[in-house]
């Protein structure tokens, strides 16, 4: 990420909304993405968006919204196609489709349309804004979006207007949930909890419980039951249910899935949402910039932008289920944050595709790890 150097006067101006707006506009003008521009100022993206509420002359304007967030997402079904965006530090997942079949049980929600497939953790949804940003080209319409953040200003989910969107219906949703006086405040994130030492984990019990799984959704409860971090659990069952792969395995996976026409599932999570693509991937393009290396999926209706230079570890993981073993490929950054998970496309009640297992077995580093385990 590029940095914008601020002089003392500029730093002092960041204590005020007008100062934040001016410095953010200058950072955006250098070509930085909104998130990177905010971080270059030492601020969270949510805090910068909140500073753009009210009347001002900057190109980005924000109107605070107030939930229920469930009802807001349900209302988006009247808007036609929209682009859903969920991201973390290393990957951006974009799907275009209709928000439909949106429901919740307590604080956990689902969106289950043909294209928009989400798992929603509303306890993390602290603030929402309708955001309008003028384009550099005056002939282009302003970008319109809904942007949601957790209490620390990290984006949990965004919704963007597309050409086929019913803009009148979208504007009606914005007006229905607008709350200009919301006054959202963000706090610094706490330090992450350190994983427990491996020696404090009941590794034998973990392996026994892992072998007894009947559904992949049991895995989260299993990690909580044994007090084990995700990658730590892989290490403790390594050679039995998990194997290491090389960092370049993710690029190979996408390339081979595209060449084989193999439908896959791509899961990307933020702090409050998991977004899923199910289907083929076709147009795989690498991109290298002065500050990052990317592998991109550039398909109609689905875009993925993954920073391969942030891939620190890759694991092949097997989970027993009532339908047979389910195999995932999971990648993490250097801080241990999950970047993305990949599966072969399948529906409940169906076994995993053999073609997916064959592809995974060919990924760089996997056979070597299997040979060592044997």
Note the beta-strand portion. Answer: 25-35%
- In total, the number of strands is 18
Helix count from the secondary structure assignment? 12
Which structural class matches the secondary elements? alpha+beta
Shape: globular
Unreliable stretches (pLDDT < 50, length at least 5) are 1-12
Largest sheet, described in full? 9 strands, antiparallel
Strand order of the largest sheet: 1-7-8-9-2-3-15-14-13
Q: End-to-end span in angstroms?
A: 42 Å
Helical content class:
25-40%
Characterise this structure.
The chain has 374 residues and is α+β, with helices and mostly antiparallel strands. The chain contains twelve helices and 18 strands. The chain has helices at residues 8-13, 17-29, 34-40, 45-50, 69-75, 167-177, 203-211, 218-226, 230-236, 249-260, 354-361, 366-373; strands at residues 60-65, 82-87, 91-97, 102-105, 108-112, 117-121, 127-133, 143-149, 155-161, 242-245, 264-269, 273-279, 284-288, 293-299, 302-307, 313-319, 326-332, 338-344. It has a nine-stranded antiparallel β-sheet with strand order 1-7-8-9-2-3-15-14-13. Strands 4-5-6-12-11-18-17-16-10 form a nine-stranded antiparallel β-sheet, sandwiched between helices. It is globular, with a radius of gyration of 22 Å.
């Amino acid at each position: 990420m590029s940095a914008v150097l601020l002089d003392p006067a500029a730093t002092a101006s960041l204590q005020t909304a007008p100062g934040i707006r001016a410095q953010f506009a200058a950072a955006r003008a250098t070509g930085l993405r909104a998130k990177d521009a905010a971080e270059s100022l030492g601020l969270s993206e949510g805090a910068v968006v909140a500073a753009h509420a009210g009347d001002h002359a900057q190109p980005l304007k924000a109107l605070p919204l107030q939930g229920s967030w469930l009802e807001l997402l349900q209302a988006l079904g009247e808007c036609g196609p929209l682009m859903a965006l969920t991201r973390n530090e290393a990957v951006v997942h974009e799907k275009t489709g209709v928000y439909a079949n949106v429901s919740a049980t307590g604080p956990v929600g689902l969106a289950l349309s043909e294209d928009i497939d989400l798992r929603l953790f509303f306890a993390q949804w602290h603030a929402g804004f309708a955001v309008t940003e003028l384009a550099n080209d005056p002939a282009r319409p302003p970008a319109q979006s809904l942007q949601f953040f957790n209490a620390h200003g990290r984006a949990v989910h965004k919704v963007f207007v597309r050409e086929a969107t019913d803009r009148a219906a979208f504007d009606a949703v914005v007006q229905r949930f607008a709350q200009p006086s919301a006054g959202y405040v963000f706090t610094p994130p706490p330090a992450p909890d350190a994983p427990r030492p491996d020696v404090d984990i009941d590794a034998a019990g973990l392996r026994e419980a892992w072998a007894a799984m009947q559904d992949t959704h049991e895995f989260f409860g299993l990690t909580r039951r044994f007090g084990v971090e995700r990658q730590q659990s892989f290490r403790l069952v390594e050679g039995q249910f998990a194997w290491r792969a090389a960092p370049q395995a993710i690029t190979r996976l996408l390339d081979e899935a595209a060449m084989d026409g193999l439908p896959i599932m791509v899961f990307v999570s933020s702090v409050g949402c998991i977004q899923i693509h199910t289907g083929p991937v076709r147009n795989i393009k690498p991109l290298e910039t002065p500050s990052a290396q990317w592998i991109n999926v550039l398909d109609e209706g689905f875009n993925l932008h993954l920073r391969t230079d942030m891939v620190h570890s890759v694991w092949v993981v097997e989970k027993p289920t009532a339908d047979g073993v389910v195999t995932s490929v999971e990648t993490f950054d250097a801080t241990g944050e999950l970047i993305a998970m990949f599966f072969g496309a399948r529906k409940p009640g169906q076994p995993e595709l053999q073609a997916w297992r064959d592809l995974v077995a060919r990924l760089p580093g996997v056979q070597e790890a299997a040979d060592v385990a044997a």
